[in-house]
Amino acid sequence: MGKPKVLQVLSMYHEQGEIALREGADVTRTDQYDIPHLCLLAKDVEGIVLRAPARITREVIDAAPNLKVISGAGVGLDNIDVAYATAKGIPVLHAPSVSKVSTAEHAVMLILALSKNVIRFHDEMSKGDYSSRTRMPTYELKGKKAGLVGFGHIAQETAKRLKHGFEMDVTAWVREIEPAKHGVARELGVVLTTCLEEIFAQSDFISLHIPLNDQTRHSIDRRLFALMKPSAYLINTARGAVVQQEHLYEALRDGRIAGAGLDVFDPEPPARDHPLLSLPNVIVTPHVGGTTVECNAITSTTVARNVIRVLQGERPEYIGNPEALNGWKGEPA
Question: Keyword annotations for this protein (predicted)?
Answer without folding.
Answer: NAD, Oxidoreductase
